[in-house]
Amino acid sequence: MKIGLMGLGTVGTGVVHLIDQNGRNIEKKIGEKIEIKKILVKDPNKKRTPLAEGKITFNAEDILEDEEIDVVVEVMGKEHPALEYITKALQKGKHVVTANKEVIAKHGKELIKLATEKKVHLLYEASVGGGIPIIRPLKQCLAANKIYEIKGILNGTTNYILTEMKEKGLDFDDVLKDAQQKGYAEADPTDDIEGFDAARKLAILCMLAFNKFVLPEKIYTKGISFISKSDIQYAEEMGYTIKLLAYARIDEKERLEAWVHPVMIRKTNPLNGVNGVFNAILVDGNAVGEVMFYGQGAGMMPTASAVVADIMDVKNHIVIQNGCEEVDLIPIEDTFSKYYIRLIAFDRPGVMSKITGVLGNKGISLLSVVQKGSLGETAEIVLVTHIANTGKVLEALKEIEELKEVEKIESVIKVRED
Ligand SMILES: NC(=O)C1=CN([C@@H]2O[C@H](COP(=O)(O)OP(=O)(O)OC[C@H]3O[C@@H](n4cnc5c(N)ncnc54)[C@H](OP(=O)(O)O)[C@@H]3O)[C@@H](O)[C@H]2O)C=CC1
Ligand SMILES: N[C@@H](CC=O)C(=O)O
Ligand code: NA
Questions:
Q1: Is the ipTM of this complex over 0.90?
Q2: Whether the CB of 81 sits within 6 Å of ligand 1
Q3: Catalytic option among 38, 55, 201, 222
Q4: Phi, psi torsion values for 96, nearest 5 degrees
Q5: Does 201 participate in catalysis according to the annotation?
Q6: Closest ligand to residue 133's CA
Q7: What homologous superfamily does CATH list for 332-415?
Q8: Ligand 2 site, residue 197, Cβ cutoff 6 A
Q9: In ligand 1, which atom is closest to the CA atom of 127?
Q10: What is the pLDDT along the chain (418 residues), one digit of tens a residue?
Q11: Which residues are involved in binding L-homoserine (predicted)?
Q12: What is the residue with the minimal CA distance to atom 1 of ligand 2?
C-alpha cells in the first residue's frame, strides 16, 4: 500500500513514527507493507524527522497525480486547500484518511457521497476524540440502536486548561501555551478556546449518530476564554467542576438540540473524572443503554493511532453510507438549563433587588444569590438559577448588563445535576 502523506506536523510526524515502530505488526495484520511514498509540507526551512528523508515535496500534484499512490492521508488542517486536495484524491479514485474535523463537519455530506460514488474509503476516526475509537463504533458497533443523546468532552486543549487551572492554580494563558507546545492545540487556538473545534466534532457525531447534518456554525457555541480562577473556585465551593460540554439530543418530535457550553457538573458525574488532555463521550442508545468512550483526545501518538488504524482499514470492504438529511436545530432560546452567573455591580443599596427583579420579571427563579464581598466601589455577585428557559435567561442577561448599577457580567455557565 503506497501512501501520500499531506502534512508533517504533530499528527503527520506521529504517523510516520508509528508506521516505522509498528510496521512489522501492521504488515502481519493487513497482509501487505505500508510505504509512505511522498510527504507534502509547506515550509522549506523546517527541520524534519530523518524518516522523511527523500520523501518531501512542496507540490500537492506530486501526490494527487501519482498513479502508484492509492491512499492519501490528509493531516494538514484548515478548510482550504485540504478540501480541494481531498476532493481531487477521491475523484482520482484514491482512498482518503483524514484527521480534519473542519472539512468533515462542513463538507462531510458531499465528500461521503463522492467517496461512495467512486467506491473508495473516506475515513476520519482521528477527527473526533483523537485516539478514542468513536467514529467506527457509531458507524458499526452501535448501528442497530436508535441514539437519543450524545454528550461529552470533545476538546483536549480546553480540558487540559480547565484541569491545570483547577489543580495547579495556573493562569489561563500559561496553560494554553503549554498545550500548544505539547501539540494539543489547533494551528489557531481560538478554535479550541472559543469552542469551535468541539462544535465541529459535535456536528460530525450528529451526522453519524442521528443521521442529521448540521453545519457547525449553526450550533450555539460558547468557549472557555472568559472563565477565571474565581469561577473555578466558586464552582468548587458549590460542589461542581467546570467542563466544556458538547451536547446533542433528539427530542420527542425528532428535532435536534445541540450546543457547546461551559457547564458546572456534579462531582458524581462520570465526566468529572475526565481530566487533562483526556476526552470522554457518552452515547445513549435504546438497545445498548449508556456507553462511555474515554481516552486521549489530542496529541501526537494517540492521534496517529487512529490515523494509522484507518489506513489499515482501507483493506476492508467498503462501507456504503447513505446520505443524511440536512436539519435545523432547536433554537437555543427554546432550550432549558440551570445557569450560574457571575457579575460585577456597583456596591449600592438596592442593586441586588434590581438584578433579581429583572430575573423575576422573566419568570426565572433563583436557587442562590451571594454577594462575594466588596472590590472597593464594586462588588462581585454570584447567582445560580433554577432550571430556566434559555431565551428568557439571554434576554435577562442583556437587561442586567444595561442596568447602570451593573459594571459587567463576567461569566455565564450552565449547571447540570446529572
Ligand atoms: N494535534 C492534535 O492533537 C490533533 C490534530 N487533529 C487534526 O489533525 C490535523 C493536523 O494537525 P497538527 O498535526 O496538529 O497540525 P500542525 O500544524 O502541527 O501540522 C500541519 C502540517 O501540515 C502542513 N501544511 C499545512 N498547510 C499546508 C499547505 N497548504 N500545503 C502543504 N502543507 C501544509 C504543515 O507544513 P509545515 O510543516 O511546512 O508547516 C505541517 O507539516 C488538523 O486537521 C487537526 O485539527 C486531530 C486530532 C488531534
Ligand atoms: N485541538 C484539538 C486536537 C484534537 O482534535 C483538541 O485540543 O482536542
Ligand atoms: Na477518534
A1: yes
A2: yes
A3: 201
A4: -125, 135
A5: yes
A6: 3
A7: ACT domain (3.30.70.260)
A8: yes
A9: 46
A10: 999 999 999 999 999 999 999 999 998 888 899 999 999 999 999 999 999 999 999 999 999 999 999 999 999 999 999 999 999 999 999 999 999 999 999 999 999 999 999 999 999 999 999 999 999 999 999 999 999 999 999 999 999 999 999 999 999 999 999 999 999 999 999 999 999 999 999 999 999 999 999 999 999 999 999 999 999 999 999 999 999 999 999 999 999 999 999 999 999 999 999 999 999 999 999 999 999 999 999 999 999 999 999 999 997 654 445 567 889 999 999 999 999 999 999 988 889 999 999 999 999 999 999 987 777 789 999 999 999 999 999 999 999 999 999 999 999 999 999 8
A11: 186
A12: 185
Q: What angle do CA 177, 182, 186 make, to 5 degrees?
A: 70
Domains of the chain, by residue range, sit at: 2-127, 135-296, 332-415
Classify domain 2-127 at the CATH topology level.
Answer: Rossmann fold (3.40.50)
Ligand 1 close to Cβ of residue 46 (< 6 A):
yes
Q: Which ligand is nearest to the CA of 156?
A: 2
CATH code given to domain 135-296: 3.30.360.10
The per-residue DSSP string of 75-138 comes to ---SSTTHHHHHHHHHHTT-EEEE--HHHHHHHHHHHHHHHHHHT--EE-GGGTTTTS--HHII
Cα 314 from Cα 293, distance rounded (Å):
23
Q: Which atom of ligand 2 is found nearest the CA of 157?
A: 7
CB of 129 within 6 A of ligand 2: the answer is no
Pocket residue to mutate for ligand 2, from 192, 243, 274, most atoms within 8 A of Cβ = 192
pTM greater than the 0.90 cutoff: yes
What letter represents residue 238's amino acid? Answer: M
List the grid coordinates of 247. 451536547
